[in-house]
Amino acid sequence: MGFIKALIERFLLHEGPAKSAELAYFFLLSLFPFLIFVLTLVGYLPLTSKDVLSVISGYAPEGALSMIESIAEQTLNNRNGGLLSFGIIAALWSASNGINAVVRAFNHAYEVEENRSFILVRLTSIILTIAMVLTIIFALMLPVFGKELGLFVAKLVGQSDAFLTIWTAMRWIISPLILLIVFTSLYYFAPNMRLKLKFVLPGAIFASIGWILVSMLFSFYVGEFANYSAMYGSIGGIIILMIWFYLTGIMIILGGELNALLHKRKIAPGKL
């Protein structure tokens, strides 16, 4: 209980709720160009919009998912090279702004000043953004090609039915694992500190599990109890998105604060 109390106190002391709102704002700004880029790129790969939406639908609330589906349809119906070029530039710049907000939040959590140059911070943000895009593309490609490759091998050894059972179970593991890799990369590279992997894994695991649970609970709440469309009208979907992103920001910052707290207790146990 003492550790949980210390974690909550640090979250409030470092203006966690306000920083979560800031992250939600940048996430919303980066969502649409990011989707334009990813979905336009997906159009040149052996994937469909259903493959993309099947990943998102597992976590996104109902109102937010309908907006994302609308953007996906418009993007794939109006795909062209110029759109892809615009998507790359806009997505990298906008999403890197979101990563910059994460960098500031993590530096605050570790109570360190940002002494890296603007170019280095922006370059780090862009590289992390590209890594996230590649991870997402890999996550989308793996179920398609992994299943086909696995079925081919399974048929050779005569165990196709057994493989399908194992693959169905593995699909529940792949998505959280990809999410864990993304969070681990953020917690390792974003702060202005040299950290060991053992000091970032606890926060990454916490944020991954916490985000999945919070997303599912919020999705259930929106679907069963809340009626944002009746309250806010046509902007109900945007409100749902903002709340979802705000909850996402809370999980990300809490994971960073958890890592910082464990790190400080390890290097200076008597001070905390």
* Number of β-strand runs: 0
What number is the mean pLDDT?
A: 77
Kindly provide the radius of gyration, computed on alpha-carbon positions and rounded to a whole number of angstroms.
20 Å
β-strand percent reads: under 5%
- Unreliable spans are none
Please describe the biggest sheet, giving its number of strands, its sense, and whether it closes into a barrel: none
- What fraction, in percent, of the residue positions are helical? over 70%
Specify the number of helices: 10
- What is the terminal separation in angstroms? 14 Å
Number of domain modules: 1
Structural class: mainly alpha
Order of helices and strands: HHHHHHHHHH
| Shape summary | globular
Main location: membrane
InterPro entries: Virul_fac_BrkB
Keywords: Cell membrane, Membrane, Transmembrane, Transmembrane helix
Membrane topology: Multi-pass membrane protein
Using brief descriptors, characterize the structure shown.
272 residues, mainly alpha, 10 helices, globular
How is the topology of this model organized?
Layout lengths: L1 H12 L2 H27 L6 H8 L5 H16 L3 H30 L7 H40 L2 H30 L7 H28 L3 H5 L3 H32 L5
Helix pairs in contact: 1-10, 2-4, 2-5, 2-10, 4-10, 5-6, 5-10, 6-7, 7-8, 8-10
